[in-house]
Design brief:
Blueprint: H1 3-13, H2 21-30, E1 36-39, E2 42-45, E3 61-62, H3 64-71, H4 75-84, E4 91-94, E5 97-101, H5 102-115
Antiparallel strand pairs: 1-2, 3-5, 4-5
């Protein structure tokens, strides 16, 4: 078999199936990001419209080094908190990379600030 025929067979086999637009919309709705997320058993609203008339801003993904810089936590602690369910879960981007949704990390930080007792002043 020539490499040309192999290539064309492979491309044909990998071609996407065309469907009607209604099923595509349902598929997108099923995979849409929820308006709230659960962190440590509590539900946090993460559906914040931006200041440009209610449109949502595009999702920003943070890599591990950015999450460390934003939270002040170390790598091990971030993964420990994820395992406990008290920190936002990472999203697998490719087979070798992960990232965190910035809104989820910001919501986690806001919750930590709200639940933190005030510092005693002397």
């Amino acid at each position: 078999m020539s490499s040309e025929s192999f290539r064309s067979r492979r491309l044909t086999a990998a071609a996407p199936v065309i469907s009607d637009s209604r099923s595509d919309e349902r598929s997108l709705e099923a995979h849409a990001r929820p308006a709230s997320t659960s962190i440590g058993g509590e539900t946090i609203d993460v559906s914040r419209p931006d200041r440009t008339g209610g449109r949502r801003q595009p999702l920003r993904m943070l890599r591990l080094s950015q999450v460390i810089a934003v939270t002040g936590l170390g790598k091990t602690k971030i993964y420990e908190l994820q395992a406990e369910g008290s920190f936002p879960m990472r999203v697998k981007l490719t087979s070798h990379s992960v990232a965190w949704i910035e809104e989820d990390v910001q919501a986690w930080l806001a919750k930590r600030i709200e639940t933190s007792p005030p510092l005693l002043t002397t």
